Amino acid sequence: MNKVAIIGSGIGGLATSIRLALKNYDVSVYEANSYFGGKLSSFKKDGFTFDAGPSLFTAPENIEALFSLAKKDITSYFTYRSLDESCRYFFANGKKITAQKNGDAFADEAEKVFGEPSVNIKKYLENSKKAYKNIGELFLDFPLDLSLITKSETYKALLSVKFPYISKSLNSFNESSFKTPEMVQLFNRFATYNGSNPYKAPAMLSMISSLEQSQGTFYPNGGMISITNALVKLAKDVGVKFHNNSKVEKIETLNETVAGVVVNGKRHKADIIVSNMDIYYTYKKLLEDNKFADKVLKQERSSSAFIFYWGINTTFSELGLHNIFFSEDYKKEFEQIFNDSILPDEPTIYVNITSKYDKNHAPDKSENWFVMVNAPAHNEHNWEEQKEKVKRFIIKQINKGLNTNLEKHIVAEDTLSPLNIQEKTASFMGSLYGTSSNSKMAAFFRQQNKSKRYKNLYFCGGSVHPGGGIPLCFKSAKLVADDIQ
What we know:
alpha/beta
């Protein structure tokens, strides 16, 4: 039985391990941390439970597929619920709206609140849905290589590509699609789902809204950590071996074919290696291949995040699971992130509260707040100095939006900076998605899932094709497993 070594236990690594174990490979997962899940982890503080990383769950069919393959009842491992709303939006001008699951209802509400003709939103969402089905699924579900040209689906996709998807930025496309600045800003936000700048990223990213607004959002019972826990349990049940506190220090090769991994100073033979580690670090540290590492750096890094984990000793009925407090000058926010490489003066604020659904995540009459702002990738920043500045702004904006005095309600606090993200998850510069999509061809320059140079070396996870985010990490795992015979 061929031995497979998987480096890292993020969602991509876990899903790959399950798929390969079901193909009768001898699979071992090596994780540097004491816990599994990579960014998808959790922690407790002062009676509050926090999901540490990703907080949005869409496309549940990706995780369901793994349990179907394993012929296991998913409900014994994992349950989730469909949500009636995707997000509550608070704008700097005082207006607010809840994005309902029903797209028509959302469009009608936006017409009442902002004066945006509902037909504009309905048309946009329908076009996004079609684009995702005709173009997105092709790009996301197949390897990024020449075989894509020979597929019949490719020609259908090419015929469905609208010129503005290629020629315009997402912001320009949205400005031509909507009448009101609020709707432009709301739909610009979807560029951040892969760490990009809506004023530079191509309009093709408009299809991302399809996942949330057309297909719906969901809540994993127990929080996002329940995804990690379910995958680890399933992996163990199908024979995957796990090794935590096991940092891979080197990928060994012989005649440009992988031969094994060095873990905590000890060599482990492997016939196939799958790296779920950031692609830059894979080349730079594990392969000591500076040429390929430098090639990765030619692409602009994605944004990162600065996160506050707050225990709040009261509840806010105005807030739901997902909440956005938009900045007044969205363009300036992204200029400061990508051009100036600084934490924005007035960032957009995202607040996630899982205690809205899991009451045991916070003490009685309290809430657990995951508060995140977009940040530049780490590059010699002093995050401790910037922490208090951004905290003051966040509190000021939330006080204004909710007419409260938030500071007196914060009874527990922890933080996570881009530097912390780099240190804990080996994401180079703390970039959440590896590289950004701030150019028309950026998606086509992402690392393929199979190494061109080293035989039997594969890559999965958010820093490689098809991209970052939980749904795409699942897809990268399928691409890798399907390629390994």
